[in-house]
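Q: What residues go here?
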């Protein structure tokens, strides 16, 4: 079943929330209490944290993990600043996850600003079409 996307290419809440509510209503109260922020399972949190730790350490100018998820039209213009900006996004996501929080776009953006990573590399990443959502 296809999910309609909003103008930011994200699923609309009207499509996602009812499904989430349905799933969580079937869980026991013990299982629901384990969810982070009401939706993220501990297992998913752990997997995301491991991936963020690996990817924040694994970006080099010649190769970068998860960069295949960025559209080709954007990665064709990639530079070393772009890759270092992408690494800043992963480092920020890692920090957010280490704090036990869900890695939302706003939290990652705030962490980038807080850590001082909103430097020329991150700006180059944005200027060349990069987005935290990737």
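A:
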């Amino acid at each position: 079943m296809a999910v309609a996307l909003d103008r930011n290419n994200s699923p609309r809440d009207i499509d996602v929330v009812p499904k989430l509510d349905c799933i969580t209503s079937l869980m026991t109260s013990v299982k629901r209490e384990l969810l982070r922020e009401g939706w993220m399972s501990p297992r998913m949190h752990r997997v995301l944290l491991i991936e963020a730790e690996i990817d924040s350490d694994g970006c080099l100018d010649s190769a970068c993990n998860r960069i295949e998820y960025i559209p080709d039209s954007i990665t064709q213009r990639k530079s070393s600043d772009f890759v270092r900006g992408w690494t800043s996004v992963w480092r920020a996501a890692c920090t957010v996850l280490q704090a036990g929080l869900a890695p939302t776009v706003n939290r990652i953006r705030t962490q980038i600003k807080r850590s001082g990573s909103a430097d020329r590399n991150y700006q180059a990443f944005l200027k060349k079409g990069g987005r935290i959502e990737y």
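A: Context that may help when evaluating the design: The chain has seven helices and no strands. Helices lie at 13-25, 29-34, 42-57, 72-75, 80-98, 105-115, 120-127.
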